[in-house]
Structures are given as structure tokens and as C-alpha cells.
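Researcher: Please generate the 3D structure of the following complex. Treat every line as part of one assembly.
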Amino acid sequence: GSGSAAASGSPVVIDVFSPFSGPNAFIGNQYNLPPVSLAAKLINQDGGVLGHKVQVITTDSGQDVGDAVSAANKLFAQYPNLNGEVGITSDVASAVVPLFNTHKIPMMSLAGNEALDKSHYTYFYRVASPDSLQGAAMAQAALKLGYKTAAILMDNSGSTQSNVPALVKAYERHGGKVVVNLALASDQSSYRTEVEKVAAAHPQVIFTETDPQTAATLFANMKQLGILGIPTIGGQEVDVPAYFQAVANAVGGYSVEDKFLRVSVFTASKTPGFPYFQQEWNKIEPKKDGPAGPIQGATYDAANILALAMDAAHSTNPTVYVKYIRKVTDNPSGQVVTNYAQGAKLLKEGKQISYQGAVGPLKFNQYNWPTEGFDLFKLNASGKLVPMFHQPGASVANFYLH
Amino acid sequence: MLSAVGFTLQWGVSNVINWAYVDFMTLVAFLDYTFTHYLHWNFWPAAILSVLLIGVLSLAMNQLLVQPFLKRGIKFFNMLIVTFGLGTIVQYLIEVIWGPTFFSITVGGQQPIHVVGVKLTVAQLIIIGVAAASMVGFHLLLTRTDLGKAMRAVSVDPSLAQVSGIRTNAVLNMAWFLSGVLCGMAGLVLAFNTASFDSTTGTVYILQILAVVVLGGIGSPYGAMGAALIIGLVGEWAALLINPYFNVVVSLLALIVVLLWRPQGLFRSLTSGSGGGTA
Amino acid sequence: MITYALNLVIYFFIDLILVLSVNLQLGLLGIANLGFMLFMGLGGYLGALLSMGPNSSVALQHYFFGATLPFPLPMIGGILLGMLVGLGVGYLVLTNMRGHYLAIMTLAVFMIGYTFLQGVVPIVNGENGLYNIPQPLSAIAGAGHFSYQWEFAVLAGLLAILSFWFCQRVIHSPFGRAAKAVRENESGAEALGKNPFRIRLIVMVAAAGLTALAGVLMAQYVTAWSPPAWSLTEIFPAMAALIVGGRGNNWGAALGTFVIYILVGQGIGFIPIMANNPNAEYAIQWTIFGALVVAFLWFRPAGLIPERKARWPERTSHRQATSPPMSHVEEATHG
Amino acid sequence: MLKRTSLESQAGRLAVKNLEVGYGSIPIVRGASVEVEPNRIVGIIGPNGAGKSTFLKGVMGILPPRAGTVVYDGRPLQGLRPDQIVSRGIGYVPQLRDVFDNLTVAENLDIGGHIARAGRNQRKDEIYSQFPVLAERRHQSAHTLSGGQRRLLALARALMSKPRVILLDEPSAGLSPQAMDTVWEHLGKLKDQGLALLIVEQKARALLSIADWVYVLVDGRNAVDASGAVLLDDIANLGKIFMGGSESNTDNHVNSVIH
Amino acid sequence: MDNDTILECHDVVCTFGGVRAVNEASLSIERGTITGLIGPNGAGKSTLVNAISGHVRLDHGYVAFDGQPITRLRPHQVAERGLVRTFQLASEFPNMTVLENMMTAPHRQAGENFFSAVFSKGRWQREEERHLIEARTLLASFGLQAKEEEYAGNLSGGQKRLLELARALMTRPTMLLLDEPMAGVSGPLIDALADHILRLNRETGLTFLIIEHDLGFMEKVCDRVNVMVNGSVLTHGTMKELREDERVVEAYLS
Ligand SMILES: Nc1ncnc2c1ncn2[C@@H]1O[C@H](COP(=O)(O)OP(=O)(O)OP(=O)(O)O)[C@@H](O)[C@H]1O
Ligand SMILES: Nc1ncnc2c1ncn2[C@@H]1O[C@H](COP(=O)(O)OP(=O)(O)OP(=O)(O)O)[C@@H](O)[C@H]1O
Ligand SMILES: [Mg+2]
Ligand SMILES: [Mg+2]
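Model: Done. Output below.
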């Protein structure tokens, strides 16, 4: 690209607002910060946004809403010219999204909170479907595969538990039966009792979402009690390589072939931009942050979308460029681009674009979340994800509501 | 159970609730992991060395941190904060050194074996063996040696113990070393059992340990053993009848009920004489 | 900048109320209550429930009732709930328990409450917690966040000052003196006609009310309230503030709150090297926190502003600077 | 009258010279000297708050002396920890916290004999026969003893370490006249066995009639020292010495009481 | 019970495990007298006082004070009725100053009510001033005036005994139970305190029950002395009478 044009003036400041401490520190450290840094690096190689270098800063949202509100206020004070926000996890979203909205800072978040499903915060965008729809998608997938009785083993974190009501509702309305539903306290030394209960109920499928560490123990216990044969279905939370790794370690290789399924919010493998993202990712962070996964991809896209919207608006001013976010992602008349450099070039030429980066096209609905739908994958013996079928957004929504 | 006995020993003898205890439990897993994975040592040398290291660390903590503070007349609550601070530092040091991800130590033979109708893995059998052996050793130490009595004397009144000719410092160090070793063993057992651990693994256990120790009577190793059994059983039982998520609640309820009935815990503690009632 | 400064001021006021309440229990009375965050949690929840509208499917939260009460009723409700539960817990733990056993008992009560509220969604939305909590009197301020912060700061400030005054009175009165006597030597105090149970219970209930008030304010300020906001580890900064500031002294509590919550809690982030080391920030914060506490206990075990020797006018000629009898310190909490 | 031997090292002699001890920055004992040797009972008397207990704590290494020397058997003791001092053969019975409350009588004695294991059980039996009350209550917790029984136990505990010198801080407090006689008698026997005894007492008369030499400590300093018999003759004068230096002022006691 | 009896114990029994510390002890004390209680170590004197003051439960028997049964009252209730005791082992409030220890003592202080403590300072301030004067006068008479700002925990053994006594007087009791008040107090001071006690008794009619092993002191102050042996009251009389009583000599005076 036009790498020769030296970036000038004040930088474009993008903040990553995530937990960087406490038990969820891995979310900030592994899922959110590295992909945003990668995006910024690529953008800056390309000469920056409208000639401004992108500067990535971080804010630790801490362990609770109180910490998060204070951290946000400090952020506004320290960076009065904040241009955009990536991150904001579900545990603190309900408290800080209104604050960012008041300060008119465009946000790109992965938070699935039901509470924000019908939000009218004009600066708040989500790059993942709501948890409720995801729960419904898991139910739909199970029924499609013919599993009529299910156990639910979700950890007790807010982001997984919020799948459960929709999951149960949709599953049972369409003829399934939940035989066991247990919340798991995270990071225990053993889940034998829980697993025994599941074994005793003989479900055809297990819905499970936990953090990777809990999964390691859980699957080890499942192996000990000999119920690895029951298929498991998970969602966004398990959509990370670390999770697969943990499970593989615990059960000794990816021997869960065909039994380990997951509903993905993102359509990573279908997306044209994913190989490029993966290639760049492997260049900088081959080991430290693990292999590239869809969640990292989504976060990387989030940063690119903000930058492209600025390009399209010819302005880094949040109140101006926020209106261009839809125009660079879900634009039927735009030309498909798979990375920032391509998009920036076309925009400079006055053309319209439709960015399809590391994770599928993001078609935002009126509540600013993507409606593309879900895909069901299975993990094969060599640890690769193999797509099984697509669940269109509309069909899942219908399944959920009726 | 091992962990609770070690903990109760520290608490009983030096009157200190060591919040950092659980972080030492985590640390031992990381040490062992380092020895086996980076230095490619065998299972036993790695395990023994890491456990001993924790014992030494525990001793150092007593000598360098706890004792100087106790000498300045700082007790109980403030010590709780000191140890909590230390624990957090250990926890974050682990995070800085080994990173914020989780690790796993795997021992062979995860296939379950049926022992009198219960499915157990080889690892679990080893654990039970080691736990039983160390409990017997511990029992002998406390009842058959002068060190045991000296520990009790120090725990009741350190200054009087000193003017009775007991080398209080050495006795305390010994107590901390032993409980450090127990802590290390408990941490390893935990790591083998859990299949994965990270820098916060131990912290989850502080409550369970506290509950067991108090239920057993502070400073009473046998109490801790008994209470560990009771708490474990009540928890399992609750898990089967109600939701396993609430087994902590049920164990704690059991604790409250027992304490209301016997405010000094179930068992006579290390520090009270045989005639001791409530005082 | 002003927004952030105001934000800090508000946090200071709220944390001050919390630390003052801990000071009443721990400093004045030597009650080793490790479960006081439960009162904070309950206050926050009831304050929220009383001010929020009834649960509807639109709100997409799960809780069991919502009363839409105007200010200050939610606040008063929160305080009353705190006091009520404080009374119950008091009867449970103060009747025949002392020292370590009392501490663990309160911890157990706390954990039961915590696990329950976290695990049973329909009460207060479980782990996700409550959000969109209305802020008191937000109608009379302008629409912007900025001006409302001023209003909230004034409200929190008034309540903090009121709490401070209240605690001063409690501590520096014959009642406080009797409480101290109970702390120092229970049977001695009893022999002088003081009723230890009654004194402990009153202090516990009053402190629970204050803690709950801090909870209500915090929940209303951040507009959301979930279990991690009142988790077990939150007790440590509060206790550290007392150690640094000085136990048994309200001015000490205030200074300690400032040092721990504001200087250490917030100041670290401003050290330049922290900027792009997000995970180091927290680690360093805790390390400094730990080191500070250790240093204070070492060099100034009684805190920055130690418990004041009670002084009466006249006859000051024989004043001698002496330190408290160390071997007796905290004997009372040992039972 | 007793002839005082010179300071030169004599086996078993405990010599304290110009000792200064205090709490924090407050000096309490300001240069007191006391000597005791085997086969002797030496007493210290003085008004309340004179610094007698503080003096003993200084000797035992519980409080660090700021000045002065403590020499036992020709070797200095200052700078040693209390347990080291005990293992040099010096026993100590404190005034207040004197027994292990939550341990049984027997356990208290065992701990007393911690450093002298040989013949421990035999010594225990001797003590039981000397003080039958303790034998009766050997399995009872020390805190359930009566005040007097407790003092006996404290004394017995100190004796269990087979000391050569023993420092007693008010051994008679709380003892019935009968028990006191037994104790004095026992202490006399110990003296005859070659022990050196240093006794702080308030029951001046009893002490003076048994002690070979007595020091009067007022305001942290030696006021008078003489043989017990001499002071006993002049006991009326003792009150004046006491009051002269002490902070308490008895003259206005009675006058000022309007209750 | 005759009108002048202020304290009456009847067949009091206290057992601990197998030990009968107090065994059917009966005692009656007339208003305005100074009564002694002597007996060998372990006779049950302190336990009897504990039983009267509510610190120990009776297994049997009853105690009446001022015509009212107090058998099952809690210690603070007994104290509030004007029956105040001191302890054999020091029971000062160590981290409070000597003066503060004194100021804590008076019963039913207006400012001890939580609400008036907080909301109506005026109500108790006057009272505080009065107590202050009283406390200082008492401290002076016990030779502790120089120590008023010292932490009580830093007093010497004897000074703690004195403070204990002064603090008990500060409560304006109707009757005082003193458990070995003179143990560890220096000789000349004992004489002065004996005078003090006699004077209080004469001038204010304060009733005393004193446990002491110092017989000289007992002889000087007590109208009558009870002798306790093996948990029960063996006999009573003046000191002089008791010295002649063979049983007493055998059991106690040897
Ligand atoms: N809690 C208890 N458990 C067992 N025995 C006890 C308890 N309290 C007291 N005793 C026993 O009861 C007896 C009476 O004790 P008490 O303290 O009343 O004696 P006393 O007459 O005051 O003796 P002294 O003059 O030595 O103070 C003693 O033998 C004592 O060992
Ligand atoms: N821990 C302490 N800190 C400060 N001052 C103290 C401390 N302990 C004692 N003192 C003071 O030191 C002085 C001497 O005390 P000490 O105990 O040596 O007296 P004593 O001669 O043994 O008196 P008694 O006969 O009453 O036991 C007293 O005035 C006392 O107030
Ligand atoms: Mg003394
Ligand atoms: Mg007694």
C-alpha cells in the first residue's frame, strides 16, 4: 500500500477495556489486546488512519462494576481525545456502556448481555450475537442432530449462565428435555459429583461452556467416569484454541472425535479475510498467545472496522465517523475487502467497501448486533474444526421466539 | 485434609492465620511443573524437592516476616493482612514468571480402578497412601516427642515458654517448616487431581481449609482430619441431594450448626489441656 | 479531568463510610467480623430493588420485585435491611463465640449469602447482577453525566460527613468507652455492670447499617450491582485502610481510606511505565499495597493517627509519652 | 553478720551491676546492683512500682538492658535470649503470667523440664510429694486452679528445669499462711541444697526473717541493703524508706478520701 | 431473713467436672459490716465470689442481695444492683488509660445509652465532669494520680491491684466483694488502705466482703471473719475468736 506516507499529527487513540487482572485476566491479555495491537500495527504500516498513527492503550476493567466505572472515568480524564473503544466484557458492560455512550465513544464489544439486546445506545456495536440467541442456536443444533435429552453443565460466570434460560426454553419448546441442569463453580479440584449426576441421567447430549481451566478438570472427570462418549455442544465461550487444548490435555489427545461440537457465532473458516489474519498473527505472536481463533479474529476486525469508518468519514471525530460503521461492513453496493489496506485504498479512491475480515460479514441490525447466524463445527482427531452446517440468523431467531 | 492439618498447625502454634498458605499450595505445582517439564526430572525427585522447597519457604516466611511482626506485638487481624499481602504478591509473581495461563501436570494411569465399589484412579490411590502415611507420622511427632509438647507450650504463651527454657524460635520454625511440607504435599496432590492449575488455583481453597480447621478445633490436627472427613461427606451428600453448586453452602451451614452447638469446634485443640472446658 | 476527580471524590466518600463502619467493629470493639461485605452487598441490592421498576420481560433481568420508590426511601430501606441482617448475624455469632471462631462464623455466614445470591438467579439476577439502577434525584440535575456527578458527590459527601460525625460520637462517648472496656477485658467490664452482648450487638447493628449505606451508594453510583463488587477480598483494602490510618480513630480511618483507596488504588495507574503493562498494574498495585501495609505495621503499628488516649482537661503535668502495652494488644480478640 | 565476698568470679555467683532497664524510652531501673551466690537467699523489697519486676526481667533477658552487667558463673548473660539464660541454669517465676493456662498441671511441669530431660519424671514425682495439691490436680487445666495453687504450680514449673539460681517474683502472693510456710520451708531446703535464690517480695517481714541479705529498691535504685536480721530490727524505718522515694504519697491518703 | 442482712448465700454448690469447688456454703452478711473470708488455698473462696457475682453458675442453692434473689443473674446485672466485685487476677483494661479505666466504672451512665451517646451530648457531659472529679480524688488516695494518663497495662503488679480497687469504688457500690485486694501491695500501703476501707465503711456504710490471706490486715479491718474449708463455711467469728478455734488453727493457721 501507500506505506510511504508518514503518519503525522496526534495519534488516533483506541482503548482496549478488558479485565487484565484477576481470574479473567486471560481475556484481556490473550483475546483482546494482541489482536487489536496486530490490527494497529498493520494499519500503521499502511500509513495510519488519515495520516494519524493508531495508538493502542489499555484499561483494566478490574474485577467488578465498581472498578470498571472508576477505570472508565479515569480513562476519559486521561484521554479526552479517545477515538474508539474495543473490548468491554459482559461482566461490566451494563455499567460502563452508558458511560461510554454519554462520552460519545464508539464501542465494539463482544459482550452478549441480554440486557443490551434491545439497546438504543448509538455508540455501542457488538461483533457477536447475543447470548440468548446463542443459547437458542445450541438448542436448535442439538435437535437437528436428533438429541432429545440433554444435560447442561455451564460454569457460573455471567456470560455463560445467560445462555441458559434461552437454551432451556427453546430446547424444551421444541421437544427436547433437559434432564440435568447444573451450574459449576469455576476452578474446583473436581466435578465428580456433577459428572456422576450427569452419567446417571443418561442424556444424549451435554451442553457445556466453561473457562478452559474448568473444562480441563471437567473433561478429566468425564473420562474417569467413562462418559466421554456423550457428545458435547458449546458456544462462543469455548470458541478458543486454549479450550480445545485444555480438553485435549485432560483426555489425552483429541480422542473426542465427532463428539465434541461447538456452535460458533463467527464464521471464521468461511471468511475470506481469515487466512490473511492468521498469517499475520503467526508472524508476530506465534507462541505467546496461542493459535489464532475466531474470538481474536473478531476483536481484530473490530479495530479495523473503527479505522475504516474513520477513513470513510474522512474524520477521526467519533460523532462523525460513528455513522459510517454500518457503511463499511454491511454495504451491499460496496466492494468486498478482506483487510485494512485494501479498504483504505478503495475509500481513498472514493469507492464504497464491504469489509469481510477475519470473521464473517457483520450485518448489524437496528440494535447494532450482527445477524449473520451461527455455524456448527466439530473437532476432529487432529484438533481441526470441521464445519457441519450453517444456522441462519433468522432461523435461529424464529426458533427462539416461536 | 493434608492442607488443613498443615494450616491448623501454623494457626495453632503461632496464632497466625496464614492467608498465603493457599498461594504456597499453588506455587508447589508450578515448581513441580518446572522441574518435570523444563528440567525433565523424574516424578519423585521433582515432587520431593518442590515439597521441601515449600517447607523452606514457609520457614523463611516465619523467620523473616511473621516472627519479626509478632515480636512487635502484632497479632491476628493485622497478621491476616500481612499474610494476605504476601499471598497476593506470590500469586502475581507466579503470574509474572509463568504467565497468566494455566498448566497441567499429568500422571499416568488415568483409567479408573474399582476399589470396593468406588472408582478411583491410580493418582488418587497414591494420594490416599501419601496422606495416610504423613498423618501417621504427624501423630507420632505430636504425641511421642518433646517437640510436640514444646509446640503446644509456645502456642499458649510464647514468652512464658521462653523463660521456661524452650527455644521458641526454633520450635516455631520447625512448626512452619512442617506445615510448609504438608502444604506442599497438599498442593501437589491438588494439582494432580485437578488436571490443570493457574496462579489462582489455590485461592479457591482458603474457605474450605478454614472451615475444616475451625470445625476441627483450631490447632487440633486430629480435629482437622475428622472435620475434613465430615465436611467432605456433608458436601458430597448435599451435592447428590441438592445442586452440587451449593455444597459449599451446605458445608458451611454444617459448620455454623456445629459451632452453635460446640463453640470451640468438635475436637479438643492442641492448646487445651484434657480438663479444659470452655474458657 | 474534573469528571475523574469527582469520581474519585465520590469513591472516597463511599469507601470512607465503609471503612468507618469497619472501624466501629474492629477498631472500637475488636469484633473480628470477616463477613461485613455481606451487608454492603445486601444494601446495594435492596437499594437497587427499591428504586427499580417491577421486573418485566423488557428489562431482561431476573429479580423478584421492584418498587420504584423515590429518594431517599431506597437508601433507608437498604440501611434498614443491613441493620436487620446485622441483628440476626449478631444474635448468631455474638452469643457465645469469640476470637477466631467468631471470625470464621461471620465468614461462613458471608459465604452462604454470597453463594446463594450468586447462584440463585431469580432473586437478584445471580452472577450477572442488577443493572440500569436509577440514580437518586437524577431528575433535578441536568441531563449530562457531568452535572449529575456534582450532585452525587454532594450527596455522598453529606452522608459521609454525617457518618463520620455519628462514629465520632459513638467512639468518644461513655458508650464507646464501655465498648472499649468490653474489647479489653470482657469479664472485667461485666463486673462493672456493662452488658457485653448488648454493646456488641448495638455496635454490630449500627456498623451493618453504615456498611449497607455504602453499598446503596456504590450501587446507585455505578448503576449496577453484582457479586464481584462485594466479594470476600474487598475486605482487605478496608482493613488495610484501618491499619495504615489507625485503628479506633475515625480521622485515622479517613486518612487510611485516602491512602489505600485513592493513592494506592488509583495512583499507580498514573506511573508512566504502567501505561502499556495492563497486567503488571494490578500486580504492582497489590505489591505496593502489601508492602505498604507491612511497612506500616513495622514502623507505625498503631497507624498514622493512632487510637487517641482519652484525655480530660486539667492536670496534664505528668504526661508521659508511652506506647500501649504490646503484649496485651488484641488479647481481647483472642478470646 | 554475713561477710560479703568480693566480686571476683566465684562458681555459681550471679552478679548484677548497675543495671538499667526500661520500657521503650522510659527508664525504670536506673542502675541497680544485686548479687547472689549458692547457699544464699537474697531478697529484694521495695514499694509498688519501684522496678523490682522490671529488674528481674532485665536479668532474664526479657527486656534488653541499656547499661550494666549481668554476670553468672564468671560469664556475662546480657545479650542472651531468655531460653539461653534458662539453659545456663537460671530459673524464673514471673509475677503475673506464670503458668500455661490451657495446659494441664502435668504438662506444665513437663514443659518446665524441657531442658533437663534426665530424671524428669523423678523430679516430677518429688514435686508431687512435696505439693500434694498439684498431684491431685495433675490432669486439670492450669486455669482452673485457685490463685494459690497456681502460684505453687508456677514455682514447681521453674524448679523442673533443675536451676542453680532461681529468681522468684513474689512467690507468696495469694498463698495461705499455711502454704506460705510450706513454700518458705521448701525454699530453705533448696538453699541448703546449694541453690542461689533471689526473691522479690512484698511480705517484707517473712522475707527478712529468712533472707541472708536484702536489698531495698526504691525508684529503680538501691536504697539500702543489709542482712535480713538487721533490717528486721529496724522494720519501722523501712516504711519511711519506701515512702521517701516512691511516687505514692500515703500521708494524704486518708485525708483526701471524701466519697 | 432479717432486715439487716444484705447478702445471703444458702447451700451454694458449684461443681466443675468432678470437683466440688463450693460445697453447700452458706453465708450471711449484715449491712454496713466488713466481713472477712479466709481459708486454705483451693478452699473455694474465689469460686464462691464468682457464684455470687454471676461469673459462675450455681449447681444448687441460692443467693440473695438486698432482699432480692440474684441467683441466676448475669454478672452485669448483679453489678448494676450495687454488688461489685474485684478479681484475684488483674483485670484492668490494658489499652485504656488509668483515668479512662476509672471513668468506665460508674453504672448506668447517661452516655452509655446508645441514642443519647450519639444524639444528646449535653445530657451526659455534666455527668462526665462530676465523674472526673470523683475519679481523680480516688486515684489520688491510691497513690496513682501520677499515673492517670498511663495505659493501665503498663502498671506494675501492685499498682494494678490498687487500680482494681479504686475502679470498684468508683461504681458507688452498695457492697464490695474484694478477692485478695492486698496481694502484691507493699506493706505501708496496706496499712493506709486498711484505714481507707475502715473510713469508707464508717462514713458511707459501705458493706465489704474481703478475701485475704494477710491476717494482720484482716484483724485490723474485719468485724467478723468466715472460715472456708473444702468448699463450705466452717465457722465464723472475730479474728481473735478464730485464732482460738482449734478447727480453724488446724485447717488454716497450722
Ligand atoms: N473451672 C474449674 N474446673 C475445675 N476445678 C476448678 C475450676 N475452678 C476452680 N476449681 C477448683 O476449685 C477449687 C476452689 O478454687 P478457688 O479458686 O475458689 O479457691 P480459693 O479458695 O479462692 O483459693 P486461693 O486462696 O488459692 O485463691 C480449687 O481446688 C480449684 O482447683
Ligand atoms: N510495659 C510497661 N510499659 C511502660 N511502663 C511499665 C511497663 N510495665 C511496668 N511499667 C512501669 O514501670 C514501673 C515499675 O514496674 P515494676 O513492675 O517493675 O514494679 P514492681 O517494683 O515490680 O512493683 P510491684 O511491687 O507493684 O509489682 C511502674 O511504674 C510501672 O508503671
Ligand atoms: Mg512486681
Ligand atoms: Mg482465690
